[in-house]
Design a protein that fits this description.
Blueprint: E1 15-17, E2 20-22, E3 29-33, H1 41-54, E4 58-62, H2 66-81, E5 88-92, H3 96-102, H4 104-109, E6 112-115, H5 124-140, E7 144-149, H6 155-167, H7 174-195, E8 203-208, H8 212-225, E9 229-232, E10 238-239, H9 240-256, E11 262-263, E12 267-268, H10 277-288, E13 297-300, H11 311-333, E14 341-345, H12 351-357, E15 360-363, E16 373-377, E17 380-385, H13 390-406
Parallel strand pairs: 3-4, 3-11, 4-5, 5-6, 6-7, 7-8, 8-9, 9-11, 10-12, 13-14, 14-15
Antiparallel strand pairs: 1-2, 15-16, 16-17
Length: 423
């Protein structure tokens, strides 16, 4: 993966969640959340496993009622039997203090607790119930994410700050007061957790909102005022391209500024759709910015009037699907393959150039070009493919390249020599 030494990184205290480090200079962690009924232990374990295999390094589950809390240790047991050491995060609202107290096996099985200070309790009960959750975290040596949501903000704090702002000679906008309330809610709750004995190395903060500019401003303010590990994400990003674009727009700005230690892309899935899309989007954001490498990248041109044939489109999809299919296998065998870059190009204009810059690339013939596809490896043309089975030929070359470059005993950085196809 490309190295970007000038990219800043906000210094935060590291937090161990299971065996995954969040913050403290560790790689930015991708996480997700199930949408199954947690009380259905088997269905939830299956979805956690699917998210884990897709690359979710932490998985959050809803713990909203006694049946869900009772199921948590069984979910943990099912995952352990499958050999999946994925850390589980319990998402608590309203009665989290009671569930953690009444179901100690749940409290012990979880790797982290998520607390929303806006609905942990109201008035006199708030501090007591918050304290109960922190004391449970201390008892079982668990970290806590204090997750403030704009949709469930502490109304007493908001009212107080609004009143103070109204009396100010230079009042802020209502939106600015909302930002301040979000930040103060997180920081005041974190300070209270520390007073109760929870160390900074057990605290993660988040300010979850649903609009990009609010997201950017709240996290900029948090980063200016603290060194707690920070969890990033729009709380309701939306469905399809809207959700992907909004999440990318907001997170990219913050990540470029060095803000953020773990991310979640909260996409609304299509009915019955694969939940793991949000995991892949999170990975692709980090990889496209050069912050982490998760899987080989396929560069493909968008097509134009010079590429009226659909051959390059079909090959690009075939190669992309092939890479996605092979990643779990390669992960078990090869190290460093995630940095691999491939190119599938559609004509002579940019095809040879982009293919040369990739580790291995193919330039397909465009309109009016000879029916031949040159292949470039490590910047040099090594062969030309012809025929109707270009996809199978190129995939075999990719497989051979990965084996020779990343296999055991392969010298790091050594050029790969491929042979077997005539000019």
């Amino acid at each position: 993966m490309a190295d970007f030494p000038d990219l800043p990184r906000h210094k935060t205290v590291g937090v161990m969640v299971g065996d995954v480090m969040v913050g403290g200079g560790a790689p930015i962690v991708v996480q997700s959340m199930t949408n199954t009924d947690t009380a259905d232990a088997e269905a939830t374990a299956r979805q956690v496993a699917a998210l884990w295999r897709a690359g979710s390094e932490l998985v959050r589950i809803t713990v909203d009622r006694p049946e869900a809390a009772a199921a948590v240790p069984h979910i943990r047991e099912k995952l352990d039997k499958r050999g999946l050491n994925v850390p589980l995060i319990g998402d608590f609202h309203y009665i989290g203090h009671k569930l953690l107290t009444d179901y100690p096996a749940c409290a012990e099985a979880l790797a982290k607790y998520r607390i929303n200070p806006g609905n942990v309790g109201f008035r006199d009960k708030r501090d007591k119930q918050f304290a109960m959750m922190i004391e449970t975290a201390l008892r079982y040596d668990k970290p806590v994410r204090i997750g403030v949501n704009m949709g469930s903000l502490d109304q007493e704090l908001l009212t107080r700050l609004m009143d103070e702002n109204a009396r100010s000679p230079k009042p802020l906008t209502a939106r600015a007061v909302m930002h301040e309330t979000m930040v103060q809610s997180a920081l005041l709750s974190a300070a209270r957790a520390e007073e109760l004995g929870l160390p900074r190395s057990k605290i993660v903060l988040s300010n979850k909102v649903s609009t990009v500019q609010d997201l950017i401003r709240c996290y900029q303010m948090l980063a200016e005022r603290c060194d707690y590990a920070l969890h990033l994400g729009l709380t309701e990003a939306g469905m399809g391209s809207k959700g992907i674009v909004s999440s990318t727009a907001g997170l990219a700005v913050l990540l470029q500024q060095g803000i953020g230690d773990t991310i979640r892309i909260s996409l609304t899935p299509e009915p019955g759709a694969d939940r793991s899309l949000e995991v892949r989007v999170g990975q692709e954001i980090l990889q496209s910015m050069g912050l982490r490498a998760f899987a080989p990248q396929v560069i493909a041109c968008p097509g134009c009037g010079r590429t009226t044939s659909t051959v390059f489109q079909e090959l690009a999809k075939e190669v992309q699907d092939y890479i996605q299919e092979r990643v779990p296998v390669w992960r078990e065998t090869y190290r460093g393959f995630e940095d691999l870059q491939l190119a599938v190009m559609g004509c002579i204009v940019n095809g040879p150039g982009e293919s040369k810059y990739a580790d291995i690339g193919i330039s397909l013939p465009g309109t009016g070009e000879l029916p031949a596809a040159p292949v470039f490896v490590d910047g040099k043309k090594v062969m030309t493919l012809r025929g109707d089975n270009l996809g199978e030929q190129f995939k075999q070359l990719v497989e051979t390249y990965v084996e020779r470059r990343y296999g055991l005993g392969a010298p790091a950085g050594e050029r790969v020599v491929l042979a077997g196809a005539a000019e």
